[in-house]
Amino acid sequence: MNNPWELDHYREELVSVDIGASQPQQLFLSVRGPPRTSPEQPVAIIECGAAATTRWWTIVQRLLCPTLRVYCYDRAGLGRSGPAVVFPRTASSMAFEMEKLFETVGVKPRFILIAHSYGAIIAREFLARLPNPTQSVVGMVFVESNQEKTHQELMVSSHISTSLGGLNSLVATGLHEDHQYSEAEVEAILKYESGTTTNISDKPSAAISELESMESSERALADREQLQKHILSPNPITVMRGDITRDLRRLFKTSGAAAAGNSTTIP
């Protein structure tokens, strides 16, 4: 094994990926962690949430990399990747690009998939593309993840977002201060996110397309009946969730304060 993507302790690069379109797709990929010394050694892949980027995951990579090799990439049109070549940005099309990215850099299964929010829909579409899912993916971690019925049953009422006005949800929940990022990491995140998180019309076109395709992608995944077929059994699955009750309480309080003319976050 002499592949730098499997051996270098730290590497990041813009990768040119042939996705069968009129031009290659440029995707930013980073990896941290110990060298992969055997094809049987699992490596982790992080799939970010809707319109999110690798910068959100720097802490997780840093904490995991002493013992686990961790890959994270920016989807097309987001972060440090090039503009998206293919539209619409459905979960299925993004899973295809993810597959081609790792084929291009020569990183093969076995994988541990770590998926956040809408990234879980993409990761599960990626899982569906694998000829032997249980051999290729030895485990999955779902972090506050979407599933087939997220938009049908679990979405926050639109009046909360409306009442927040232009206030960023991270500010409204206090998560803009309650974190473990360094100042430089926060600055890098905010530099990219500034002006793109409060209004869909402000987002890059790829991000808009991701958001517009979420519900149809969830329905398409439901048609695969992965849950009924136990597609990953007997491999382990971990589900992680935050304190949604606390966050909703903060959102309600902050939206109430905003409606009263006071934008101060209420703890």
Weakly predicted, low-confidence segments: 195-202
The largest sheet, given as strand count, sense and whether it forms a barrel, is: 7 strands, mixed
Mean pLDDT reading: 89
Total DSSP helices: 12
Question: Rounded to an integer, what's the Rg over CA atoms?
Answer: 19 Å
Structural class: alpha/beta
Shape: globular
Straight-line distance between termini: 52 Å
Secondary-structure element string: HEEEHEHEHHEHHHHHHEH
InterPro entries: AB_hydrolase (IPR050471), AB_hydrolase_1 (IPR000073), AB_hydrolase_fold (IPR029058)
Protein name: Alpha/beta hydrolase fold-1
Keywords: Hydrolase
Pfam families: Abhydrolase_6
Describe the structure.
The chain is α/β, with parallel strands linked by helices and 267 residues long. 40% of the residues lie in helices and 16% in strands. The protein has a seven-stranded mixed β-sheet, sandwiched between helices. Helix 3 crosses helix 4. The chain is globular. The termini are far apart. Mean pLDDT is 89; it is low at 195-202.
Tag the structure with descriptive keywords:
single chain; alpha/beta; seven-stranded mixed beta sheet; 7 strands; globular; Alpha/beta hydrolase fold-1
